[in-house]
Design brief:
The complex is a heterodimer of chains A (360) and B (231). Chain A is of the alpha+beta class. Chain A is 23% helix and 37% strand. Chain B has a single domain, classed as MetI-like fold.
């Protein structure tokens, strides 16, 4: 039996959710889903800011809520560290007093732990400052520090990187990993960004319409093909997994093996044989029925059409292509679809114009 | 410069205003919080009652107070029987009149503070281990301090200016209920005291100026300290 269990049914207006998640201590779990899927509701219910209709919530073997035995511990006694999208600092207090707010109410002051957290977060130089002139990244680090010093049994981060620029996001993501390792505390990381999740989490839970749609390691998740979920609006993309085959020093690139097919990317520093998650935007994949000659595109992959989905209003077709054991999606016009006489099971070449590497 | 009666009136005005505002602060904060946060019949009724003195003629307030606090009145009788206290024709009555009349200004300002307070900060405090009361004292009150200060100064200024309800309720007794405006009224009624009336007018204007200026400065200062110099 896992030490953390979040199982509930709730109704908020017309939105019903039914969640059942369990995980062990010391993991980083990512919860992801489109906006409105109910992922932030999970955080609020764990904190006790919202009460579910029924269910059972247990963190670190402590029951926080149980509809059967009528247990509903109020938020201030739940011992949960929570960081929101906004830092939510107390603007009438200095940074230091913000940090100590939760600590004073939950635990005995531990100088060693305090120093350690300040060091990990890199906020020693701003301790005496007011909170209102901190940058977004600084404020968010203080908010994480405040949560950690309250001696929580779990740290919940709800979209903590939204609104920060990329270097600051990267810095905080590294800090989050370090916290998990050095302080040995489970982290629930809620985010809609696949890049953040792949970088941070060991286990990923996809929430769709208030339910767990899929869960597992990143590698399990991408093979689920539940990933149509990630394709939202105009930024549809697919994720595939590959292994670094070799680094080509003469042509300055790296070759990645995807189930036997070779993909050429810009040079990356990771070691040969390490796993890579690759993100391919559907718009960057064109289709040809023969191998085109004299073309600048390097990645011409042999694939098979497995699904065709037409969008009549926009004149667009989404073609699902089998690549090795995986699947990628190409977005072409319905006009091209007719011109090339594409149909299911036809062998075609996917011309991949751009590749982005997500990590790992 | 000032004659003894004028000095007496000035002191009494200050004293009554201080007493009236001091006893109003805590109920003012509580009622402002209820009106701002709670929805429902109780809240909206309270809202109407609290703002009534702002729009009613002060004479009406004075007369109602007279009825309530007379020895046969609902409250007056209770005070007399259980505490042996009578507020009629005394400074206590003047303080009650000032408190009632200035209360809406106090509540309005504080309510504005509660209205604009970001409840999300409150959630952060709960999760960090603060109970509701703890959060109210350690987070909400300090954050809305500028509104409280504005409310206090406005109410104080209104107390100094109070005339109608006071004269109706507790009459115009030098040294007991004769505040500045009442002394000025007396001065204007008696021939040959024009100079005294002028002095009282000037003092009143200066006092009003000072209160409004103090309100501005304090609110600005605390605002800067709490929220930063954002504008």
């Amino acid at each position: 039996m896992e030490s953390n269990l979040i199982k509930y049914e709730s109704t908020l207006g017309n939105f019903k959710s039914n969640i059942d998640i369990s995980f062990s201590a010391s993991n980083i779990i990512a919860i992801t889903g489109l906006s409105g899927s109910g992922k932030s509701t999970i955080a609020k219910i764990i904190c006790g800011l919202l009460k579910p209709k029924n269910g059972h919530i247990k963190i670190n073997d402590k029951i926080l809520y149980c509809s059967k035995s009528n247990i509903n511990i109020p938020p201030h006694l739940r011992n949960i560290g929570m960081v929101f999208q906004e830092a939510r600092l107390f603007s009438h207090m200095s940074v230091k007093n913000n940090l100590l707010y939760g600590q004073k109410r939950n635990s005995v002051f531990d100088q060693k732990k305090y120093d350690k957290i300040i060091k990990i977060l890199g906020i020693k130089s701003i301790l005496d400052r007011n909170t209102f002139n901190l940058s977004g990244g600084e404020a968010q680090r203080v908010s994480i520090g405040r949560a950690l010093l309250s001696d929580p049994k779990i740290l919940i981060l709800d979209e903590p990187l939204t609104g920060l620029d990329t270097p600051r996001q990267n810095k905080i993501m590294k800090i989050i990993k370090e916290i998990n390792k050095k302080l040995n505390i489970p982290i629930l990381f809620i985010s809609h960004s696949i890049e953040e999740i792949i970088f941070i989490a060991e286990k990923i839970i996809i929430i769709e319409n208030g339910r767990v749609a899929a869960q597992g390691s990143i590698e399990e998740i991408i093979s689920y093909k539940k990933l149509s979920y990630f394709n939202s609006g105009n930024t549809s993309y697919s994720l595939i997994k590959g292994i670094i085959h070799k680094h080509d020093k003469i042509n300055v690139n790296t070759i990645i093996d995807i189930d036997g097919t070779k993909l050429i990317t810009k040079p990356i520093s990771d070691k040969v044989n390490s796993t890579q998650i690759i993100k391919l935007f559907s718009k960057d994949i064109s289709i040809a029925t023969n191998i085109p000659k004299n073309i600048s595109i390097n990645n011409i992959l042999e694939t098979k059409i497995i699904k065709i989905k037409k969008f009549k209003t926009s004149g667009i077709a989404e073609i699902s292509l089998r690549l090795g054991k995986q699947e990628i999606i190409s977005e072409i016009t319905i006009f091209s679809l007719h011109k090339l006489k594409l149909k299911i099971n036809l062998k075609v070449f996917a011309l991949v114009k751009a590749i982005s590497l997500v990590g790992k | 410069m000032l004659n003894p009666i004028e000095i007496e009136a000035l002191k009494l005005s200050g004293f009554i205003a201080i007493v009236a505002v001091s006893v109003s602060i805590i109920p003012g904060i509580i009622i402002a919080w209820i009106i701002s946060r709670k929805k429902g019949l109780l809240s909206s009724t309270l809202n109407m009652i609290v703002y009534l003195p702002l729009v009613l003629p002060p004479v009406v307030i004075g007369y109602l107070l007279l009825l309530l606090f007379s020895h046969n009145g609902l409250i007056g009788n209770f005070l007399l029987v259980y505490f042996n206290v009578s507020v009629n024709f005394s400074w206590k009555g003047a303080a009650i009149a000032a408190a009632v009349v200035s209360f809406p200004l106090l509540v309005r300002s504080i309510k504005l503070g509660f209205d604009t307070f970001d409840y999300k900060t409150e959630e952060a405090a709960y999760i960090n281990g603060a109970s509701k009361l703890d959060c109210f004292i350690s987070i909400i009150l300090p954050q809305i301090l500028p509104s409280i200060i504005t409310g206090i100064t406005l109410a104080f200024a209104r107390c100094l200016a109070e005339f109608g309800a006071t004269i109706t309720f507790v009459s115009n007794i030098p040294g007991e209920t004769q505040t500045l405006p009442l002394a000025l009224y007396t001065a204007t009624q008696i021939p040959g005291t024009e100079e005294s009336a002028m002095r009282l007018v000037i003092i009143s204007i200066i006092l009003a100026f000072i209160s409004v200026a103090v309100a501005e400065i304090l609110a600005n200062k605390t605002n800067k300290r709490i929220l930063g110099n954002k504008d």
